[in-house]
Give the backbone structure.
Amino acid sequence: MRFLRFNLLSHKKLENDLAKVDLTPPQFYVLATIGYAGSLPFGEIGVKMMVTVSNLTGIVDRLEEKKLVTRKRDHRDRRVVHVLLTEKGAMLYKTTIPLFETSISQIFNAIDRAQQKELSALLRKLNRATWTN
């Protein structure tokens, strides 16, 4: 229950902070994923975010309405659709990263650096164990 409560509280803080730039956490995650990796096919973004393509479609639709991303068909395989940041999306991504980092920092500032590293290692271990089972 503590984990669930922490998850809900930290998600709410991140949600409130991202609302200042008119983004939801999933929208930010798409921007960050594409901003970090460059243009990606729809399916790859879904895998990285662990969401279905149908859920991702709605998120990308809203980002496209905000002129932050655009879709582009692959020139070799027209069935593949890539999602790219627009110039406006790239600028928002770059300016939102510090906001995100500050938000995360505020969430974890109750524990010291060594504890943060330990928590990170434990979460990584849990992630690996969960996805191999």
Notes: The domain at 2-132 is CATH 1.10.10.10 (Arc Repressor Mutant, subunit A). The chain has six helices and three strands.
